[in-house]
Amino acid sequence: MPLAILISALLAILGSTLGGDALWLHYIFKPLTTLLVWAMVWRATATADPLYRKAILVALLLSLCGDVFLMLPMKLGFELGLASFLVAHLFFLRAFTRDVPLFGKRLPLILLLCLSLANLLVLWPGVGKGLQIPVVAYMLCLVAMTAQAVSRGLSLGTANGRLAACGGVAFLISDTTLAYNKFYAPLPASALLVLGTYYVALYLIALSVKSASATYAR
What we know:
Keywords: Membrane, Transmembrane, Transmembrane helix. The chain is mainly α. The protein has one domain (2-217).
């Protein structure tokens, strides 16, 4: 499964990078990669907390919908994609609050909010008026998810917590890179930067479920 995910991710990135006649690779393998990560979590049935796994499964399914919507060549596609990922982050957040309090460690939330607000000030002139409220709402959900993932990782000190925390940070990096590429200026190797960190994020979060399964099985 990990090898299939890696190959599919590389083909998705390659198709996006080359464009033109190779764009079909992106259209096929971008959602397929997310689907393979979803299948990896689906197979991890012996988790210590089944609700954690279920919340991650729903979040990944919503991420898959977001992948498809973002590939649509229209403004509505971006808006639907943004909405899908926003709700996905709420389900990730739900999973990350199963075994620890919300924002039990305050420092990650404060630091990530300050960082995201600084980014928003830079990006704001390029954000269209119709997208300003959705972008702010999305940013807040993304920051909440990432901060909770890091807070949980610090509180638990387990492999499961560390994997999910690193996944949350990778998600933040991916979406921040995407925002700069879209609202500020085109970035070199943007497909590699955005999709590479995105798939790392999904895979690490999926591994957190498998890690919990392995612990439970022992």
